[in-house]
């Protein structure tokens, strides 16, 4: 009896309900339940993977398509002759520098292209925190589903919008696409917390969030195929927009925010999840987010710096590798699509290897959680920084350059077992909030990098790109130094102030709705000091 009361009290302290009554069964739901032999949490994992894959394909498809939309080729007196230009795979006609691309009708300079590519991240940053709030309040299913549906519709309409309003309308449309994708990660985090037991989260997390690299691979590869042989770039947006709409239909039918609201989950699985997932439901009257303490936490800012550095390097590769491969290394568009996919495949595979090694080392006590996070974050930052510099100095040796790019993304796979999961170490109770804060801040790297690279590479020459890569090197290494100094691997006091108490010298007011009793050790220490 006391154990039951203690469990109820624990749920109240965590702001959680113990259980929600299930829906009334009817013949249809019983028939569906009998047909579903696969556990619903694994169906959620697969659909989540496809959702993240879908989000990233719609994010990156413009990166490759824009190379076939823009005709900036110059000839005669206005031509800029690059003495270090690489030979081209494309067929050049009429002894001029004009390549036969009938659908390349837009005259956008590099600065304009960079601004267009960065537009997505303005919207993406704006809806991270609101997306997490909506997912908590209304459930992750519709917050995630409607957001990605809106992005899919906007993607499908992209050709119409471009031809009607040019670069200005496209920039606005990219902002709206980013706003639709902003809630994706917070909503998925919340749903996984409701559906996945703690000892299954490593596998499910790798499954779901691996969809990002699959999306980059699939998006780059299919874009290259769809754009080959001078085809209309509109096909790219119709294909991925249609794929997103199809995913939404399946998501609406198969997935639900919580196990207790799922109409045809098996009784065995429902019982199992209610007994093993402590964060099954969230109560509306929870303690406020301890922003005063979070914003004063050195490990949090170390995490933010590491995320900014990673995203700077990652978005440089995602957004601008297709342009570098096509404009500098002079690969044709079909080859560019295939080669752009290879680095993400390497990152996807290496992320599992790094995660396995990190888990084994921690379990065997070879290093602490903090040390493991620092080691893998350092590998994921300094390794790619060195490789992209080597790629830029490989010049027109296209094989060597692409090997360095693939190696850089493979080393970046250490990010998932480094700072990516560090939020769960620091604040398991506020991991969603901390993730939203970190993602919102680091997303500004996605806003800055395409525009800055556009400014640094007005003629898209090898020498100009080398400067852009040195800037990326400085950001990756500099932010990693900050992380190594202030990173931590332990739960922070403000994540559970009821249990851990306030630190000495805290003068910024209470973090909870009621007075928190100090832990017994703290009270005994205070008593001794006062008596002496």
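^ structure tokens above, recovered residues below v
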């Amino acid at each position: 009896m006391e154990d039951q009361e203690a469990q109820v009290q624990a749920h109240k302290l965590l702001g959680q309900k113990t259980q929600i009554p299930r829906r009334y069964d009817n013949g249809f739901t019983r028939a569906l339940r009998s047909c579903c032999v696969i556990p619903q949490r694994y169906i959620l994992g697969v659909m989540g993977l496809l959702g993240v894959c879908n989000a990233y394909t719609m994010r990156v498809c413009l990166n490759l398509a824009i190379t076939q939309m823009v005709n900036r080729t110059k000839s005669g007196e206005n031509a800029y002759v690059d003495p270090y230009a690489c030979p081209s795979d494309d067929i050049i006609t009429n002894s001029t520098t004009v390549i036969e691309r009938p659908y390349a009708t837009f005259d956008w300079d590099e600065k304009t292209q960079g601004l267009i590519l960065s537009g997505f991240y303005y919207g993406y940053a704006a809806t991270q925190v609101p997306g997490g709030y909506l997912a908590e309040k209304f459930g992750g299913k519709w917050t995630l589903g409607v957001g990605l549906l809106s992005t899919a519709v906007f993607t499908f309409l992209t050709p119409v919008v471009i031809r009607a309003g040019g670069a200005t309308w496209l920039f606005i449309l990219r902002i709206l696409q980013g706003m639709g994708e902003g809630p994706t990660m917070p909503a998925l985090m919340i749903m996984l917390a409701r559906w996945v037991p703690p000892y299954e989260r490593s596998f499910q997390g790798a499954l779901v969030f691996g969809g990002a690299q699959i999306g980059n691979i699939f998006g780059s590869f299919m874009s290259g195929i769809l754009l080959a042989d001078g085809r209309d770039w509109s096909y790219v947006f119709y294909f991925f927009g249609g794929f997103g709409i199809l995913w939404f239909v399946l998501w609406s039918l198969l997935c639900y925010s919580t196990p207790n609201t799922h109409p045809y989950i098996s009784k065995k699985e429902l019982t199992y999840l209610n007994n093993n997932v402590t964060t099954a439901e969230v109560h509306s009257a929870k303690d406020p987010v301890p922003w005063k303490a979070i914003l004063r936490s050195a490990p949090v800012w170390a995490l933010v710096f590491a995320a900014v550095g990673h995203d700077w390097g990652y978005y440089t590769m995602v957004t601008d590798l297709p342009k570098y491969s096509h404009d500098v290394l002079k690969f044709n568009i079909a080859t560019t699509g295939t080669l752009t996919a290879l680095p993400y495949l390497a990152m996807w595979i290496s992320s599992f290897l790094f995660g396995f090694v990190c888990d084994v080392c921690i379990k065997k006590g070879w290093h602490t959680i903090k040390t493991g996070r620092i080691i893998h974050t350092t590998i994921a930052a300094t390794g790619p920084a060195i490789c992209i510099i080597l790629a830029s100095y490989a010049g027109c040796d296209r094989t060597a350059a692409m090997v360095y790019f693939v190696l850089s993304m493979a080393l970046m796979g250490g990010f998932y077992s480094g700072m990516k999961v560090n939020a769960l170490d620091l604040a398991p109770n506020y991991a969603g909030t901390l993730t939203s804060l970190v993602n919102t801040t680091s997303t500004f790297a996605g806003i800055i990098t395409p525009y800055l690279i556009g400014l640094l590479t007005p003629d898209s020459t090898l020498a100009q790109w080398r400067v852009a890569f040195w800037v990326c090197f400085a950001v990756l290494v500099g932010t990693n130094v900050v992380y190594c100094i202030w990173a931590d691997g332990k739960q922070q006091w403000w994540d559970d102030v009821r249990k851990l108490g306030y630190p000495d010298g805290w003068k910024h007011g209470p973090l909870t709705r009621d007075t928190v009793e100090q832990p017994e050790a703290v009270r005994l220490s205070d008593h001794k000091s006062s008596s002496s």
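The mean pLDDT is 78.
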